[in-house]
Known about the structure:
Blueprint: H1 4-16, H2 21-25, H3 37-51, H4 58-66, H5 75-83, H6 91-118, H7 125-141, H8 150-162, E1 167-168, H9 173-179, E2 182-183, E3 187-191, H10 198-211, E4 216-220, H11 225-236, H12 242-247, H13 253-267, E5 271-274, H14 280-290, E6 294-298, H15 313-330, E7 334-339, H16 361-367, E8 370-375, H17 377-382, E9 391-399, E10 405-412, E11 417-419, H18 422-431
Parallel strand pairs: 3-7, 3-8, 4-5, 4-6, 6-7
Antiparallel strand pairs: 1-2, 8-9, 9-10, 10-11
Amino acid sequence: MNSVELEKALLGCLIKDSEYIDSVKQWIPDKEFFYSSFNQKVWVSIDSLYTRGQDIDLNTVCEEVGSAKDGYHSQYEITGFLDKVTSASKAIVYARKLHSYYLRRILDNQMHLISNNINDGSLDTNKLLEDAHTTIGNIIKLQPNKTFDMESLLSRTKESIFNSTTQIQTGINTLDRVVTGMTRGEITIIAGRPGNAKTTVAANIARNLVHQGMKVVMFNREMPNTEMMKKFLAMESDSIQYRNLRSNIDISSKEIDDVSSKISKLYNGKLFMFDDVRDMETTFREIKAIKPDVVIDDHIGLIEHPANDRRDLRLKIGDVSRNYKWLAKSENMSVILVSQMNRNMEHRNDRVPRLSDLAESGNLEQDAEIVVFSHYPWVSRYGDDGNSDCYLELIVAKNRYGQTNSCEVGFHGNSCRVTDSEQEAVALANTRGDSVKGTPNPF
């Protein structure tokens, strides 16, 4: 596989702007990467001029090519290289492409050689395998090493310090004061037992992010999108009760239309929800296409794996969290993974969650920057639905860059709202027609 025209375009870029030569040489370290023998001579001439610190332009390159020992001087042909240049900045793109073509040519030649040797019955099989392994290894070694630019890193670091480019606030101020927000490239875990509002906490964070103008993707694996949207309808409405939405009681079409119009204007292009994505490959494809600021996956224990993957669930979840970790870094986003907890806490007197209570705790705890437990004491202790209780604990059990603490926040189930204090939640409940005075901390 080759492209002589692409080779000419690359050489034209370098003649037009020699500042790209160092970057190109990472991909084209030798003249053999060019298919055309004349293009090889032009490359050697450009490299020689650059090494000697001399100017590189059409005249100097033509002179260098003409003075080569077995030189072939064609100013007209080299001039044509410049006609193929649309932008000198494309030199790196062309170099990578030519690098790929060269590796494919080598691979094709080596595969033919290996194929011919396989049919030679006099050759030892183990020797054939060793030769094939050596051949592939040598080709892999031709791949350029990653470069490290200290100045670029320092510039990005200063930008993240002064412009807060890496920090994302959850919008729950009581929580943000402890964790100082989520970090791009990192994972946050929100976990809790059933009925402890972990999904509602995640939905509140999504709402807050949208109000900040950020782009959010939610994978609703536990519930349909329509049920999740009912939470947003309740959150954005001043009067609609979530329990009434669930049972279709005392719901006005006008109220629904009004709040739907509000959500459409505010959320369109910022919130994306999927309830039919079952595997990691499709999940990551959607994320890369949308390029969000934050991904919320609720919950990862329901992600499907290939039928022939017989590994323990603990190992599968470990793969999910590790892959999410790398994706978060490559896409410069923050990830919130919503997870269940095991039943260990139900056998303790205090019933307060701990890191060891995380379902498949080892992998999730290790990969996460922040672990937050959503703990609804009323439900945990009394098994009640908690509608009359406006107190919720967000327990920061792990915080890689700060302190751990228990954040006492307000919670009103019928508006699906998490507030900064119990007093705010009580006031919200009373405006919605729930007569609540507030309850003391049960512990």
